Amino acid sequence: MAALLLLxxxxxxxxxxIEAQEAYSKLPDKYRKGVDLALQQxxxxxxxxxxxxxxxxxxxxxxxxxxxVSYIYHNFYLKxxxxxxxxVDARKCKFRDDRPLIDCAICYxxxxxxxxxxxxxxxxxxxxxxLTEDMKTTRVDHCNTMSYQSxxxxxxASKGSK
Length: 162
Prior knowledge:
- It is globular and about 45 Å long.
- By secondary structure, it is an alpha+beta fold.
- Strands 1, 2, 3, 4 and 5 form a five-stranded antiparallel sheet that branches.
- It contains three helices and five strands, in the order ααβββββα.
- Residues 1-16 and 152-162 have low confidence and may be disordered.
- InterPro entries: Chemerin, Cystatin_sf.
- One of its GO terms (cellular component) is extracellular region.
């Protein structure tokens, strides 16, 4: 009986990590790059002790003004796992249910599929309970402003005079 319970528990652990990997792998590449950037910044903080995985997207949008340029906005959750920070093979990492989700919003410009250094990518991640409506509004406002900072007009958007 104990062996059966252990087998069922192990299957549950494997399923939760498979679901996390599947959710991440289903993201288009342009959004995965942003999730990777957010995870990289999160892992650079000394106070973070657990390995985090992408959990789910809340909002995705992109503006493609042309010439292989895109402005990406992605709001998503990261969830702590029982693995230690720095775990390389996360396939066996089970999600923790005793830690709050981390709500991340990220926006960045890509050219030819690569994240540009200018304007500097904006990454804002915070434990969900601490996130206020004002913070959410500030995130969106910042990203909306960033999308149009370049001031460049595309040929299709310009109006000629006759």
